[in-house]
Amino acid sequence: MIGLYKTECVHRDGPWRGVDDLELATLSWVDWFNTTRLHSSLDYLPPIEYENNYYRLNNALPQTRPGEPSLR
Description:
The chain is mostly helical. It has helices spanning about 1-15, 20-35, 45-60. α1 (about 1-15) crosses α2. The longest helix has 17 residues, at about 20-35.
């Protein structure tokens, strides 16, 4: 992960004027990495979209009552 970050953000977009510029670039890269990039292991969906779909589908399943066996 650190190598990917250094390759895609630090080395490609540098040199940096200071630490503040690098911090802003890092925040931008992390936002892109978590919300926008398409991931092949997730059927080419952005990670945030895949996670939202997961929780939407799992919260839609009927909940078992306490003491009842679960069929999941």
